[in-house]
Amino acid sequence: MSNKTEYEVRYAVGQREVKGYDTTELRDTFLADKLMQPGKVYWIYSHYERFMVGSAVPTDSPLALETLDALKSEHFLDRRELGIINVGGDGTVVADGEEYALAAEEALYLAKGNKSVTFYSNEPAKPAKFYLNSAPAHHAFTNKKIGKQDAKVLHLGSQATSNERDIHQLMINTVVETCQLQMGLTRLKPGSVWNTMPAHQHDRRNEVYFYFDVADGQAVCHFMGEPQETRHIFVQNEQAVLSPPWSIHCGAGTSNYAFIWGMAGENLDYGDMDSFPPNELR
Predict the structure, then answer these.
(1) pTM of the model as a whole
(2) Would you tell me how many other CB atoms lie within 10 Å of the CB of residue 21?
(3) What CA–CA distance (Å, rounded) separates 43 from 270?
(4) Rounded to a whole number, what is the distance in angstroms from the first to the last CA of the chain?
């Protein structure tokens, strides 16, 4: 592994432990605040579903997807699949010699078995910012680019409840075949601040929220924990929160913003969740 790739490991913790955490312990355990480092590939290897969250920001030179010691494999994708969503300038991903151009908010699914993956920015001064999610895979499906026109879009919420939003389902089983990885991008309308309300759990899979397009000086308050024992983490632009299967996940911003959701686990049923109305949260 070169000095252009960094990673850390986050072990799983349960509800009982988290009840005693202070703010620093909560942030150290669940907040990903080192994403989008220029000229670096950065990963968090999570022990929730062996899910990995990371980023690649190529600048003057391309970046390679290198294997990690934690994977114990010759190539990163020997036993994994990878989801990529660009939230920066135009870029290109080359997988086993095949080039995939990705503009902002376009996605790429890379299947198990790809040997060589390289990330490029078209303009180093305005680099691509590739947000990465990876999960273990048992089958080699087909690499697929998902453009904006390919996404399944859901229009949910209303301005009256401050949660009018468009959900762009980029990597779900009606758009692309995956083993367990699912990803999408949600953008809130001006005047709306609440995401994912009512809040929900899905004990059959984990989820990670990556917040971006959070304006300077603004923040998102991300809520997590058990429905009757909630906690909160204030999140800045281009930071993410790891949600264990036992935790709800929702948030409210001081202005509108966008976020990418990614999950993996027991099944591919997007609607498999247990919802909790606002008046039931504690």
Answers:
(1) 0.97
(2) 16
(3) 25
(4) 45
